[in-house]
């Protein structure tokens, strides 16, 4: 967002940015591509995760939460595309503008927190398997975690929910949506600094650091205890998740912070670059199904069956695949401490229990 100096006047740089159609056309093109991939991709993912994937493990619950937000953003993109193509002219009312803005940012930060939750779940299962197996209410914790994520994000975005984010630019005869914010949306510069820090620092930087540390711990554990197939899958999952952070989320949050500092303290702007980076943040909704593919063994199995990539749809083929994917889960731990796989196909660390089969 760019900030107006007062309630009725925009500086020349802001007017020039709004009059330039290059950025708006580029953003609308990105949104159109995202829409074409997002809706069918996440539609299939939601169907597989909700109706075809059992049991509903914590990772699956987190993935369903992520898919719902991705799909909501995808279905809302046509309004954003129309807005961009009209040259930043919003004709759908202030309430819908506020809803769309909160939806976009809630999707981004809920995606960040959900991927962090999945990484923590992986870390506990691989590096702390005994404590992980002793958690009796993991599903309830996952559901509570999803609710907590939304509560934290919506509290952070509260200023956007209660503010009229439309702005009439009389010089260009347009009404913007979130592209121009009045400085008095928040009382002081200090309040603006807290708001920006809550988004870029608390909701992005801290989860990113936690995610990196978790996957470093997972990979280190699997390198020393697991077979190459498990290590390769864990490495691919870590690569995809961290790529989403670096490519989709980092540019937007870094530019948000830089733009806010320059705008609030130096009356300068990085808004064109920030606007493009905001469109990149929507690309994550197209990449999330790849995260599901690497994170969940059951999701992979169901997707292959839908796409008819199995060795066959017969019961024998399914049994053979189950036996192959459950190589470690069927072993007894009487004389050794094997590395077990969880229900999602990632190694869960070494657990030695006499006369008890590992899961």
From TrEMBL:
PROSITE patterns to which the protein is assigned, alphabetical: G_PROTEIN_RECEP_F1_1 (PS00237), G_PROTEIN_RECEP_F1_2 (PS50262)
Transmembrane segments: 29-50, 62-82, 102-120, 141-160, 192-216, 237-261, 273-295
InterPro entries hit by this protein: GPCR_Rhodpsn, GPCR_Rhodpsn_7TM, Protea_act_rcpt
A GO molecular-function annotation: thrombin-activated receptor activity
A cellular component term, taken from the record's GO annotations: plasma membrane
Residue ranges of every copy of the G-protein coupled receptors family 1 profile domain listed in the record: 41-292
Chief localization: membrane
SUPFAM superfamilies in the record: Family A G protein-coupled receptor-like (SSF81321)
GO BP terms, alphabetized: blood coagulation; phospholipase C-activating G protein-coupled receptor signaling pathway; positive regulation of Rho protein signal transduction
Cleavable signal peptide: none
Any single Pfam family the record assigns to this protein: 7tm_1
Entry keyword set: Cell membrane, Disulfide bond, G-protein coupled receptor, Glycoprotein, Membrane, Receptor, Transducer, Transmembrane, Transmembrane helix
Membrane topology: Multi-pass membrane protein
Record localization: Cell membrane
Disulfide bonds: 97-177
Sequence segments annotated as region (Disordered): 333-359
Family designation: Belongs to the G-protein coupled receptor 1 family.
Official protein name in the record: G-protein coupled receptors family 1 profile domain-containing protein
């Amino acid at each position: 967002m760019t900030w107006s100096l007062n309630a009725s006047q925009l500086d020349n740089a802001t007017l020039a940015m709004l009059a330039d159609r290059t950025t708006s056309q580029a953003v609308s093109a990105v949104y159109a591509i995202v829409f074409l991939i997002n809706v069918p991709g996440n539609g299939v993912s939601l169907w597989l995760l909700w109706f075809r994937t059992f049991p509903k493990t914590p990772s699956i619950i987190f993935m369903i939460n992520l898919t719902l937000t991705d799909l909501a953003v995808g279905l809302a993109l046509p309004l954003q595309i129309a807005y961009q193509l009209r040259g930043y002219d919003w004709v759908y009312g202030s309430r819908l503008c506020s809803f769309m803005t909160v939806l976009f940012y809630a999707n981004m930060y809920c995606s960040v927190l959900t991927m962090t939750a999945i990484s923590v779940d992986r870390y506990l299962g691989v590096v702390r398997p005994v404590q992980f197996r002793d958690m009796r209410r993991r599903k309830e914790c996952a559901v509570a975690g999803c609710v907590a994520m939304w509560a934290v994000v919506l509290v952070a975005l509260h200023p956007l929910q209660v503010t009229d984010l439309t702005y009439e630019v009389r010089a260009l005869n347009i009404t913007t949506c979130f592209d121009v914010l009045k400085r008095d949306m928040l009382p002081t510069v200090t309040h603006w600094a807290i708001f920006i820090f809550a988004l870029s620092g608390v909701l992005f930087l801290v989860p990113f650091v936690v995610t990196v540390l978790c996957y470093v711990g997972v990979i280190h554990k699997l390198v020393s205890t697991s077979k190459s197939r498990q290590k390769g899958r864990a490495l691919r999952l870590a690569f995809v998740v961290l790529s989403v952070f670096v490519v989709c989320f980092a540019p937007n949050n870094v530019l948000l912070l830089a733009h806010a500092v320059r705008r609030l303290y130096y009356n300068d702007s990085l808004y064109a670059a920030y606007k493009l980076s905001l469109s990149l943040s929507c690309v994550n909704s197209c990449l999330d199904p790849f995260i599901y593919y690497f994170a969940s063994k059951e999701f992979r199995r169901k997707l292959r069956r839908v796409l008819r990539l199995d060795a066959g749809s017969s019961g024998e083929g399914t049994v053979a695949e189950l036996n192959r994917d459950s190589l470690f889960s069927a072993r007894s731990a009487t004389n050794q401490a094997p590395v077990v796989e969880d229900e999602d196909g990632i190694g869960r660390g070494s657990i030695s229990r006499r006369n008890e089969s590992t899961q």
